[in-house]
Amino acid sequence: MKLDAAVFRFAGTVVLASLALAHWVHPGFLWLTAFAGANMLQASFTGFCPAAMIFKKLGVRPGNAFN
After folding, report:
1. Membrane-spanning residues where (predicted)?
2. Nearest Cα to 45, choosing from 26, 62, 65?
3. Whole-structure pTM value
4. Residue 2: strand pairing partners
């Protein structure tokens, strides 16, 4: 798996999990969805993604989107 796919899968999992938690546990979990969306938006402008940095340190092969 390449870095791009790992980051997108992680972000998608966070969004879907937070929506499920907001539905079944507490609506406050929607803030996690907002945080994930804001982080994806800023990463698209700056190229800085904390999740990508963590995945790089774990040895995931580089991709095209995150250097």
Report:
1. 7-25, 31-55
2. 65
3. 0.87
4. 61
